[in-house]
Amino acid sequence: MHQILLVDDEPYVVDDLSISIPWAEMGFGQVHKAYSGYEALELLQRYPIDIVVTDINMPELSGTELIAAIRKRWKHIRVVMLTGYAEFEYARKAIEEQASAYLLKPIANDQLIAVIGKLQEKLRSDWEAWSSHQRTMQTFREHLPILRDRLLGELLQGRKLPGPQLQERLDQFDLPFRAGLPVCLAVVRPEEFFRRQDMHSMLLFEYAIINIAQELFQDRFLIWSCKDVHDYLVFLLQPREDVEHDGNPGNGVAQAAYQLQNHVSTLMGGGLSVVTTGWGDFPDQVYTLYQSAISAIRQHIGSETGIYLDTTDNSSSQPVEILQPLYEPPLLFHMFEANNWQGIEDKLNAIVSELVHSPERSLEHIQEARLHLETAFYYFAHKNNKLLSEIVGNPLLEQAPFQTPDKLREWAMEVILLLREHTDSERRNSRTVLIRKVHEYINRNLHYVSLQAIADHVQMHPVYLSKMYKLETGKRISDYISQVKMEKAAYLLIHTPLKIYEVSSELGYSNAHYFIKLFKEYAGMTPHEYRDRAL
Fold first, then answer.
1. Which of 279, 275, 287 is closest to 155 using CA atoms?
2. What is the pTM of this model?
3. Per-residue pLDDT tens for 312-363?
4. Which of 59, 227, 300, 522 would be a feasible disulfide site paired with 486, CB 3.0-4.6 Å?
5. DSSP symbols for 176-226
6. What is the helix (H) or strand (E) element at residue 102, kind and residue range?
7. DSSP helix/strand/coil, 487
8. In what residue span(s) does the HTH araC/xylS-type domain sit (predicted)?
């Protein structure tokens, strides 16, 4: 939905326009009001405003100066200028150069609605042209290396994508890898020389290493690369189907890996350690291959430099399998931060399912899962300034080790439900306190109150505050302000001798005629009639 800003140094003009035009029906989600050019500039910096309606003759910052500032900083904004007949000749040149449209005062509502409607159509057509297929594809191509890098990084971390979804991504990213065919990994660790470089130089070196690897591998392998969480360069290799491989394709991988080390050392003066893996099906075994490479670097290379290691035959002992669902994204910590309770439950079910159906799982794996879950629970509680024991109680935290996955799930779900109930309760309480603060501030400052002033008082962004208030009360803040002002006006009319214009001024209305109009809409009669009827 669009947003509009109404600007005039005469408040009753702005206020009248804000309520007399059916903005919501016209597709405007928010109507902003400013009573000076400088106030308008402040609002323009805060909100994504699409259309500005402004008077030309304003003190301090005129309408033409305001439009010039808009044209300089927000070229997409459309401007309607309001001008009196006497000012028209003076302002015509500026209007023609800067404004999208102009109207002569006094303004008829239907005339303004027609002009605004045309500008909305123009905005829509401009955005459609901007987001055209051609431009979208150009932007997509520019970001293609980042998208490829991210997708491979997700596969290395164990993310599982449904077959059709993965194939769609591969096709979109122009990656000719085929599911079900074997792949291997070459993991490259840049050594000390590269780690001493600044970020810009390191990026250039990494780009050069990737280019050299492309040249060495591409004749016999499809190659896809990314930078992993350890700052290693990872190359996924799949034998080309259009090339004959003499014997074991792993020989070609080893040969190219040796050449990569030599070329980088000769051309750049820095060393690399390289680990190549055995073969596994794509994409199901990518995560396992990657873990074997990282494990080899940790166990067999360590702080040594310039090492090449082939892990293909490193299978003399049966490895202890890790509990993969614990560590594949999205992590429990991230889902707790996002209050993604359904995702948390799904994650727990995946962990328990792995414990139940995998024969290699032991009691130690159950204990690992419990410790991981407990850490996430403590993290969430402490992020919310609470001790976990205050929320769930010590008996739940002090239970003996679990012997079965079902017992683990039963315990974890009980803790999760208590954490969720606590979070929901805290949210409700905080919103209740917020609404009370907003109402107290409005009641104390009826003579002059604005959304920005209220937002500053409760230390929130105005847009967020408006949404929260509407969500909790079902009304807009402006509706509440108008209601309270009219209720206060009714009280003053009956219980004080103030004149009508004095009541209007007391409530912050600079124009008594505008106040009378609003009161008649509220009470169904004028202030005079209301006072006379009460006497």
1. 287
2. 0.52
3. 865 444 556 778 888 887 889 999 988 899 999 999 999 999 999 877 778 8
4. 522
5. ---TTSEEEEEEEEE-HHHHTS-HHHHHHHHHHHHHHHHHHHTTTEEEEEE
6. strand 101-104
7. helix
8. 436-533
- As a whole number of angstroms, the distance between CA 297 and CA 295 comes to 5
DSSP string spanning 240-296?
-TTS---S-HHHHHHHHHHHHHHHHHHHHS--EEEEE---EETTTTHHHHHHHHHHH
Cβ-proximal residues to 518 (8 Å cutoff; 6+ apart), any chain: 19, 482, 485, 486, 509
Give CA–CA dist 184/310, Å, rounded: 11
Dist CA 7 CA 17 (whole Å): 10
Measured between alpha carbons, how far is 176 from 333 in angstroms, rounded to an integer?
A: 35
Question: For 448, which DSSP code?
Answer: S
Burial label, 313 (beta-carbon count in 10 A; 0-12, 13-18, 19+): exposed
Q: What whole-number distance in Å separates Cα of residue 438 and Cα of residue 426?
A: 18
Decide if 425 contacts 350 (C-beta within 8 A).
Answer: no
Are 154 and 229 in contact, with CB atoms under 8 Å apart? Answer: no
394 vs 228, 300, 388, 389, 399, CA distance in Å? Answer: 40, 43, 9, 5, 9
8 A C-beta contact, residue 282 and residue 290? no
Can you tell me whether residue 238 is helix, strand or coil? strand
pLDDT, tens only, 86-100: 566 655 655 665 677
Sequence length of the chain is: 535
Closest by CA position to 290, among listed 308, 273, 311: 311
